[in-house]
Amino acid sequence: MQSANFSRRSLLQALAATVAAAATPCGWAEVAQALDQAHAAAHIGADAKISLLSAAEAADVEAVAAQIIPTDDSPGAREAGVVYFIDRALATFLAQLATDYRAQLADFQAACRAQHPGVVSFASLTSEQQVEYLTRVDQTPFFNTTRLLTLLGMFSLPAYGGNRDGLGWKLIGFEDRHVFQPPFGYYDRDYPGFVIDSVKTK
User: Fold this and answer.
1) Is residue 201 part of a domain?
2) Is residue 101 domain-resident?
């Protein structure tokens, strides 16, 4: 069990380390500006809400994310609220992808229903059926985009909608604290305008 935990943690650390190198369809300046807007919006309403995706779309996206980072002896994408990050991303800083992404999702859902007649949605499949279906579509633009957004939602600031209670950070051993240690930071540690977002961990 200990070796399995170590392997999962090592995998998550590797995934988190490569997120920053992933391709992005827009400039980083635009992303930073939109993230600031999303960050500000996050402080207006405390409760996470789905604002862009329909309930059926959100359920299927969450189910896909939960297979990408599953729940086992540690929390996964579902517990971290990754679907809320994805919804917010598509509504704000990745809004230019929203139309294509939802069209790709519709194709994903239609193909799933065709392969499993009588099944209402991907989310309603058993875990084994979901994994089997995803192995057939894991090279599609929809899956690739969802995988990237899942990783971002798992490890980004909780204020952006995902990483609920810092669950993603806990999985990789990251502590959200600012340490002033000479020669870095000691000279401005008392700057009154400096604010660090923090997540309480137990």
Assistant:
1) no
2) yes
The verdict on residue 184 lying in a domain is yes
Domain that holds residue 68: 2-188
Crossing angle of helices 82-91 and 95-115, in 10° steps, is: 130
Find the Cα–Cα–Cα–Cα dihedral 172, 174, 175, 179, rounded to 10°: 160
What rounded mean pLDDT belongs to the chain?
Answer: 77
Which pLDDT score, from 0 to 100, does residue 168 have?
Answer: 79
181: β partners? 184
Task: Name which of 10, 48, 8 is nearest 160 in CA terms.
Answer: 48
Which pLDDT tens digit goes with each residue over 8-67? 555 455 445 444 444 344 455 555 555 565 555 454 444 568 999 999 999 999 999 999
